[in-house]
Amino acid sequence: MIATQAFIKTIKSIPTNNILGLARTIENQAKARIGKKLNADIKKISNSLFKKFKYLFSS
User: Fold this and answer.
1) Domain of life of the organism in this record (predicted)?
2) Residues 16, 22, 25, CA angle at the centre, nearest 5°?
3) Which of 18, 34, 42, 54 suits 27 as a labelling partner, its CA being 20 to 30 A distant?
């Protein structure tokens, strides 16, 4: 709760023209994190599928 209030206070103190830059920065960081997670998930899935196909075709 205190952290939220501090965040709101900080946001309110930022000039309006800088809010857009801050919003873009936050958005880009979120996209980067989601991208890293998605990339890791895709790697896990592709490795799993590769192992299954390898097993099927080696029999």
Assistant:
1) Eukaryota
2) 160
3) 42
